[in-house]
Amino acid sequence: MDANQYIKTLERTGRLSEPAIRNAIKALGLPEGSKVLDVPCGAGNHMQWLLEAYPKIHVTGVDIAKNHIEYAKNKLLGAGKISSCDFLPGDMNKLDFADNTFDLIWCCDGLWPGPKEMGCPAEEPYHILNDMVRITKKGGIIAILFWSSQKLLPGYPFLEASLNATKSAIVPFNSETKPELHIMCTSNWMQKSGLKNIWAKTFAADIQAPLSKQEKEGLKMLFDMFWARAEQEVSRKVWKEYKKITNPDSKEYILNNEGYTGLLTYTMFIGEVSK
Ligand SMILES: C[S@@+](CC[C@H](N)C(=O)[O-])C[C@H]1O[C@@H](n2cnc3c(N)ncnc32)[C@H](O)[C@@H]1O
Fold it and tell me: For position 58, what pLDDT does the model report?
């Protein structure tokens, strides 16, 4: 996917998850003056929502993609509204900050263990999490969030279940991946890194008709992201039905359903740094 298309995907799909992420941010209850690191910051959406929820904090955004950093910087600083933030290109594998710098590290959809070619930072999360602990103050918080589920094909539960049981829907996890590297084992990763008071909470975002053009674009991107490569793993009947209901030119295009209702969830894992 080219760089501009990736940013467009982050923006469109980011809007769909916005209610879930904003509620997760609210649940943090951040004190004034907190120093926050958002890594990877992508298109800067979460930096913006963090600063809108807590105007008296400072947020640093780090991402390996220079064009994401430039885009996020222009978006947040360009409007002249939000100034208590800064941006740095950087790799999560080498967080270039002094020990005990941050009160909160916010890491959403950034720590998926898997191959770099798939956009993952590393095959395992431990060295990154240990480094996050190093740069967080004693008593500070590490929040790791992952997209954890979705229901996007109302009326087609068998079809959706078949599609979700394919490799393309479960990447970067595969049949060789150790169970401990599944994202729902993040609490175990946190225990290994010495974090205390670990808890997890799942936040949902509802998606309901009437859908805007942008919401339809975001949902179509999600269909393609999860299932466009699933053809070899499902029956021909399932594939035919999937193509029919996800083709915008079809009479049965699911996003034209006037009662369309879908949902997606993010699970937030929280751990406290005790040094
Ligand atoms: C799925 S996006 C998530 C962005 C943002 N946290 C969000 O939820 O909207 C993943 C981001 O990770 C960045 N990324 C991939 N590998 C990275 C690495 N090793 N270090 C820092 N950023 C990385 C990509 O450039 C991309 O912006």
Answer: 98
Distance 190 CA to ligand 1 centre (A): 20
Nearest atom in ligand 1 to the alpha carbon of residue 38 is 6
- Regions of the chain short of the pLDDT cut 50: none
Give the model's pLDDT for residue 198.
Answer: 98
- Tell me the CA distances in angstroms from 242 to 12, 253, 263, one per residue in order: 22, 10, 18
Q: Is residue 54 part of a domain?
A: yes
Check residue 11 and give its pLDDT: 96
Residue at 82 is within a domain: yes
C-beta of 72 in contact with ligand 1 (< 6 A): no
Nearest alpha carbon to residue 23 among 273, 271, 267: 267
Q: What is the whole-number distance in angstroms between the Cα of residue 227 and the centre of ligand 1? A: 21
42 CA from centroid of ligand 1 (Å) = 5
Q: Which of 6, 21, 46, 92 to mutate to test the pocket of ligand 1 (most atoms within 8 A of CB)?
A: 92
- Residue 111 maps to a domain: yes
Find where tokens 């094909």 sit. Answer: 153
For residue 246, being part of any structural domain is answered with no
Alpha-carbon separation of residue 226 from 115, 123, 168 (angstroms) = 17, 21, 6
* Any ligand 1 atom below 6 A from CB of 131: no
Backbone angles phi, psi at 14, to 5 degrees: -60, -40
Report the relative pairing of strands 196-208 and 85-89 from DSSP bridges: unpaired
Neighbours of 2 (CB within 10 A): 7
Number of domains in the chain: 1
DSSP string, 63-98: ES-HHHHHHHHHHHHHTSS--SEEEEE--GGG----
Contact 116, 78 (CB under 8 A): no
Q: Report the Cα 126 to chain-centroid distance in Å.
A: 19
